[in-house]
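EI: anyone free to look at a 362-residue chain?
SC: sure, send it
EI:
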Amino acid sequence: MNILYGVQATGNGHISRSREIIAALKKAGHSVQVILSGRAPEQLWDMEIFKPFTVFKGMTLECERGKMLYFKTAKSLSIQQLYRDIRAYRAPMAFDVALIDFEPVTARIARRLGIPSIGIGHQYAFNYPVPVAKRDPIARLILKYFAPADYALGLHWHHFGHQILPPVVPPIPCDAETQTGKIVVYLPFEKRTDVVHLLRQFGTHDFYFYTDVNAAYDGGNVRLRPFSRKDFINDLKNCNGVICNAGFELASEALHIGKKLLVKPLAGQLEQLSNAHVLKMLGLGDAMKGLDADVIRTWLTKDALPPQNYPDVAQLIANWVAEGNWQESGELVAKAWSGINIQLYKSPQCLLKKRVFNRVPA
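SC: here you go
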């Protein structure tokens, strides 16, 4: 098949997830042309599997000190540029299908060219009545119309009785012994000095803080690390826990290999607020509203949960796409969840809804 693949590049989670699916598609012999938007080309790294790719401006979020800035985000949007990019794209071949990881340019190019489109990502799970942190009609509209698709495969940590897949995670081998005092930190929306000042209070632990620096720097118990997918995975494998924003992909990778999880959602962003809400509801992780030393102190004493051991969802999706019956995803969903022992740990909210959460997806 000839496949057009759109990736929202504002968050590393979209890139990580798409990397696995694109690799599976290429391994099966499909031709994949990639469009990325939302990040400047010079800020992309480890992109070999995505080639050939095109980068457009697209749409991105403006944030400061862990809070989404709606006015600044709206001001930075260039609708004219967005539609110029959509009109300017020249397809190098006749595409059979467009796969869209919440990427707005590709979604609209697919419609312009009359290509059937499939949305793949966490945001598409919100097409169903999954648990959310609060009612937010505007955020719902954004989720619905930001990157629309003809068909959708939503991803989440639980199916909630609906046609929702488990997370797409890389095959991370658990071949390293866990270092009890080692914590991986990824908080891209926070001010670096705020995070460093907070973490230095906990001298009993070493924090590997992945942030926007040019080279590794060890300053006491806080070790700054530049962005590197390979190094990050190596640290993730032998750490004891992860502190991160409440995006979907990194939390999924941590849960997959059994790392305890503390998330700090991006204030004002419904998806991240809802992710934090669901992690607590399912008993899979803890959350803090701000950079809270007391919450971190308590969390550091907790034990990790057993690994969730998600299946190779990327390969399952690649096989399903090739079959071409995109209106029917029931068999795909059932197969993906069949080997996962979903546990509703000790969350009272979950125990009250246990019968609902454990029903067969429909």
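EI: The chain has 14 helices and 16 strands.
SC: 👍
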